[in-house]
Amino acid sequence: MGIAEQYTENTPDSRYEQTVGYLRRNYRAYLLIAPAALFLLSVVGYPIFETFRLSLYRAPESATTETFIGFQHYTTILNSQIFYQLVWQTGRWVVVSVFLKTTLGLLIALHLKGDIKGRKFFRTGFLIPWGIPYAISAVVFRWMEHPQYGYINAILLKLGVIEQGIGILGNPQTAWLGVVVADAWIGTPFMAIIILAGLQSIPDQLYEAAAVDGAEKWHQFRYVTLPQLKSVLLIATLLSTIWTFVSFDVIWTMTGGGPINSTATLVIWIFETAFAQGNLGLGAAYSVIGFAILGVFAVVYLRVYTSGGEEL
Amino acid sequence: MTMAGHDRSGLRKVRIYGVLIALLGIMMFPFYTMFTSTIKPSQEMFNSPATLFPQNPTFEAYFQVWTQTDVLLWIGNSFLISLGTVALTLLLAIPAGYSCARNDFVGKRTFLLAVLVVQMFAPVVLIVGLFDVIVQLNFYNTYFAVIIPAAAFTLPFNVWMLYGYFKTIPIELEESARIDGASQFQILTKIVLPLTKPALVASITYTFLYAWNRLLFVLTFLTDSSKYNVPRGVFSMVGALQTDWRMMLTVSVIGIIPLLILFAFLEEYIVSGMTAGAVKE
Known about the structure:
The complex is a heterodimer of chains A (312) and B (281).
Chain A: H1 3-9, H2 12-54, E1 57-58, E2 67-68, H3 72-78, H4 81-112, H5 119-131, H6 134-144, H7 151-159, H8 175-200, H9 204-212, H10 217-245, H11 249-254, H12 266-276, H13 280-307
Antiparallel strand pairs in A: 1-2
Helix pairs in contact in A: 2-13, 4-8, 4-10, 5-8, 6-8, 8-10, 10-13, 12-13
Chain B: H1 3-38, H2 42-45, H3 60-68, H4 71-102, H5 108-120, H6 123-136, H7 144-167, H8 171-179, H9 184-195, H10 197-213, H11 216-221, H12 230-236, H13 245-275
Helix pairs in contact in B: 1-13, 3-13, 4-7, 4-10, 4-12, 5-7, 7-10, 8-9, 10-13
Keywords (chain B): Cell membrane, Membrane, Transmembrane, Transmembrane helix, Transport
GO cellular component, one term (chain B): plasma membrane
Family (chain B): Belongs to the binding-protein-dependent transport system permease family.
């Protein structure tokens, strides 16, 4: 190839032609993903941009005018006491709820693993709490925890644990526990099903080999089950952490974030600020903080997800 | 096997079923309280402490609920919203999943990862920005205001689910159909989609449940009470001063019946949908 030809090969013109040629060969592929891509760009991508923009404005829900105020909302947030209270309450909410879900889910999965008669019956039963509206579960838990008519109080009274009905949800010290229990109940089925699937993909030979070596049940669990289950457990707890962090319906239905904000988490506060108080700009600023936290989770999740050499 | 071994495995079985039944009992307890409360006469329901077993069971609440609440309307709206979301999601996800499974193109990896990230972007952190979009599009207080966000957040799962499944269908099937003169569209609808049935059922069930169960979008984007879905309807019965617990719990029981039927028939698909992605073969 001569120098002159090489030169023309690299002119913008021929690169343009190459691109056109590529598109001409592949336009169908792009045409098919275009509707989904455009839809997500406008319904998810644009609102992300819009949230960032709004967070720099004073924007009351009722008014049509927005005033640019720069980072004022962010300084307001960082200087407010409620923000640090929310960080602590959100952290406590996520850690306790995910811990309960994982432990209960693991317990259920380990017992469903073997040669169980009626596995379909049990599996369906354990699955149902996950599949019904969270608002309905929340209402039922609210009823169960009712200080006068609730079943939990009735049981505790019968057992002699308490002498008179207690209002779990009405007390700022205990309300978060009453809500966490409901959220854990809803999230346990997912953990159980995922862990069960993980358990069933562990080759039997590993257990046989361990049995030949004389490994006790506990040792089998410690040295075969847990290591084999590691990646599934990691993905499941990560997803569960994300979902618990953004869980809205349960808290909003049970307590609305009260009493005196004791059950409010960051996402509850986004809604409270933006829609209950009608301050869209400040709500948007809280959302951006939510993005940042979710962003960290998302990066970790993608790392874990693609680390197994998953082909895209 | 020795006698001792027999006894041990028998004991093990007893222990396993014992634990399973106890765990299932704990998980079912809220349903027990829900249902038994609704079959108590109203004065018994407000006994303190509660009677754990209804003394005088009656179904009177179930007759009252039709006249005192809008339960049928809410169920109808839930169906409408769920079916609309399913239709929109599939319309977008099938072509996208198919394209990614069959073609190698610049930007495919970016697209698929971006979709995965959307799944992480929970609706509630986006709700303020979404509110602006819904208002600007003039969808506020219409069914679209609920269907569109629901479709956006179920689309990622659907794209990945279908993409994964389309990849497993041998391309030879499509090539031979093409030789027989079938068009692209015919190949998709007559050959590929029928083979994709398990993934489609899982997708549809997941999307249907998601849209049926969501309170947030209806709470934020619908003010017209005649458009409420089941969760929003139940929530609307939570009063600031007084709550009609009896009617609310009865509506709740009725509102989950369609879901229980769905579960009984489609459990297998629901499980395969839940585990897709999380567990690698």
